[in-house]
Amino acid sequence: MKTKYLLPLTLIGFSLARMTATTVIPPTFEQLVQQAELIFQGTVTNVKSVWEGQGAQRHIDTYVTLQVADSVKGNAGSSYTIRMLGGTVGDETMLVTDTPKFNVGDREILFVEHNFDQFVPLVGISHGRFHVQSDRETGRDIVVNSEGEPVRDLTKLGREEESVSAANAISPDQLKAAVKDQLAAQAGHPAQ
Question: How many C-beta neighbours within 10 Å does residue 82 have?
């Protein structure tokens, strides 16, 4: 009787082992902008993890809903939900390495691609998420990367970024303006 469950559990184990071995080459800023289907700033309003699938395909998905404050590329509407593989339901957790964690109230700028088709629908997995936070010293909003480091130079994203103080970090408006400039450059005409 117990061996009946051994094969599905073994297959799930192999699947999870393969997922945790994911290596992502950090995309450049140009690649982030080009590959994203949607780019928007929003605030997380709900995070819900649920069981999906049947039998050996049973897994946990997490749905993160954001109230959209500003669509920069594409139209995210007034509210947008992304689906990611993994999460916690009750006392059971399915952990997927490098999957960003979201909490209600988080302010984010997301670069979304293939939502509902990929295990993490962000360009470059965690590289497609920029957290917006208030700098304690100056009180101004700044952008930090997936590792919590303030972002200063978009040309060095994921590549030998220097540690910078929050005072030197870019603001969300500067990041969104850079996206608009990049979109205009990709379209072959200057930004307005």
Answer: 21
Q: What is the DSSP string of 50-94?
A: EEESSGGG-EEEEEEEEEEEEEEES---SEEEEEEE-EEETTEEE
- Model's pTM, two decimal places? 0.83
Residue 127's CB is within 10 A of a number of other CB atoms, namely: 23
CB-CB contact of 106 with 131 (8 Å): yes
Q: Where are the domains of the chain?
A: 2-187
* Residue tagged 């992502």 (tokens): 24
User: Which pLDDT tens digit goes with each residue over 85-100?
Assistant: 999 999 999 999 889 9
What is the C-alpha to C-alpha distance for residues 5 and 164, in angstroms, rounded to an integer? 51
Q: Which helix (H) or strand (E) holds 186?
A: helix 172-187
